[in-house]
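User: Sequence in, structure out. Go.
Assistant: Echoing your sequence, followed by the structure tokens.
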Amino acid sequence: MTSLLQQLVHVPGPVVLAIVAVLMFGEAAVFLGFVLPGETAVLLGGFVASTGRLSVVLLAVVVVFCAVAGDTVGYEVGKRFGPGMLRSRMFRRHGDRVARARVFLDGRGGSAVFIGRGTAFLRAVTPGLAGLSGMRYRRFLAWNLLGGLVWGVGCVVAGYLAGSSYEKVAHYIGEAGAAAAVVLVVAVLVVWRVRRRGHPEGARAGESRDTASHDPVGR
């Protein structure tokens, strides 16, 4: 991680912004979230913004826009190709987790789109499952916008503050100690998110419910 942060210091801001935008858009649109949690890219983008080579406001706008747009594409994919999507090898490999995510969505309706932002796996699959379930797009969009704004800005600020701490600490204890400090902050945030990937909040409790009694979401 230290090596990665040191390399990022020399990457042009526009390149970092483009990478973050692609990863955020693709997280739900093409299910990149199965491979790389989006907050990892956003936190590192916030770190770069703290160096002054990238506008933190522009980064936040791009993150929110790409997150919302990517989820919209994911919703349409689920709506149009849902059954085939669930039969794909990628989804079958995560069958149990997808089943829990469907129970989670059925049990909470539109609010699940917002809550799911906090878990990497749910961010990747909830938009598609919402489209598949028949949730009305207006309802989905409202929760998607709210979740994208809160989560996106929050992650950008977290990465930015971690980077700002790096700059301040570097003045007193040198580059090596500052690198260790920021690595610790970012690592704690990333590990916390990754650990939650397999444990969607509330999904376990939902497994015991009789989902057959629920109407289709948002109808």
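User: And one key feature?
Assistant: Confidence is low (pLDDT under 50) at residues 169-178, 201-217.
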